[in-house]
Design goal:
This protein is mainly α. Helix content is 74%, strand content 0%. It has ten helices and no strands. The longest helix has 27 residues. It is elongated. The protein starts with a helix and ends in a 5-residue tail after the last helix. The N terminus is likely disordered.
């Protein structure tokens, strides 16, 4: 096996390509992005990209899955946490995200939302975003349902409450990214605490 082949087979090759895609998308945007631009953002030969991916569309579909995996794997909830603490952790994850060594959460969300904006004309990407949205909403609904069962939350329509929280999160992120309102996530978090989460608490007996 040649040295270049060994590099192709290394475990971190895909991550190097994905992180290079972040850099290239941040610089060139989705519409003008070329595979050549991604190749220029990494140490590996551009042929490595063609070895792993069948063109730009295949690469960007894998990149979107990579971003979603990062997003979904970033929440760390204590298994013994009470439902309110777990709900707080999941909302914070969605609004503020994890820390990364390169590119902040909002750098990554900028790229995420740029791909999101083009998804209405792309069935494959639309399916990925739709499934991601359902998983975010589903994780919130599950916590609310568990809280109701344990008596930590009052009886509510968990599906509807999960939908509301998920939509508030998406709207706050989009307002920060599209309009530059950097305080939008913090404002949304305060509103959720005051008008949504506090309303879940059972009435004193």
């Amino acid at each position: 096996m040649s040295e270049s082949d060994a590099r192709v087979e290394s475990g971190d090759t895909r991550e190097q390509i994905m992180e290079a895609t972040f850099r290239a998308l941040s610089e060139h945007g989705y519409k003008d992005l070329r595979v050549r631009d991604i190749g220029e953002e990494m140490d590996l030969s551009r042929q490595v990209i063609h070895y792993h991916f069948d063109g730009k569309y295949d690469l960007l579909s894998s990149f979107l899955e990579y971003v979603i995996d990062q997003y979904e794997g970033s929440v760390d909830v204590d298994g013994e946490a009470d439902p309110r603490a777990e709900l707080d952790a999941r909302i914070d994850q969605c609004l503020f995200g994890p820390e990364f060594e390169e590119f902040t959460h909002w750098d990554r969300m900028q790229v995420y939302h740029e791909l999101y904006a083009h998804a209405r004309n792309d069935e494959r990407h639309r399916e990925l975003f739709d499934a991601h949205y359902d998983r975010i909403r589903g994780s919130i609904v599950t916590v609310i349902e568990e809280g109701i069962e344990r008596g930590a939350f009052r009886e509510v329509d968990a599906e509807l409450m999960g939908q509301l929280l998920t939509d508030v999160i998406h709207a706050a992120r989009e307002r920060r990214i599209a309009l530059g309102h950097e305080d939008a996530p913090e404002e949304a978090r305060r509103a959720v605490d005051a008008f949504v989460l506090d309303s879940l608490l059972p009435s004193p007996s």
